[in-house]
Design goal:
With 131 residues, the protein is α+β, with helices and mostly antiparallel strands. It is 24% helix and 27% strand. It has helices at residues 49-67, 85-97, and strands at residues 5-7, 22-25, 28-34, 75-82, 107-112, 122-129. The protein has a six-stranded mixed sheet. The chain is globular, with a radius of gyration of 14 Å.
Length: 131
Amino acid sequence: MPLPVFHMVESAPQPVATFSHASEIDGWVFLTGQMPTWPGEPDRALPDGIEAQTRRVMDNLILVLEGLGLSLKNVAQARVYLTHFDRDYATMNETYKDYFEEGKLPARTCIGVSGLAVGALVEIDLVAKRP
């Protein structure tokens, strides 16, 4: 069995902790949860509100996927973490679904949490599969 390969994607945001942007084994790619931070601007203020933060997170995930030669079409599973679940769940869902083709949504879990790094409202991680 091969060992995992660890990926850092230059165009993606600087990690907020000690991790790789993704790890890969046997064609499965595990993307670290992205925060609503700005590529190349780690000190820039986070976007305001759950819709803007969800868009920034999804755009950051796309940067990682593209850096690995993949796209959202390769995503099999997602996990979403929300700090204000009851308040933000519906808006996050409306924003999130716009990133995928109708009827082709990955399996997903959404979890309410007490806090996220950098004071974010949302974090999303993905599992993708190479063709």
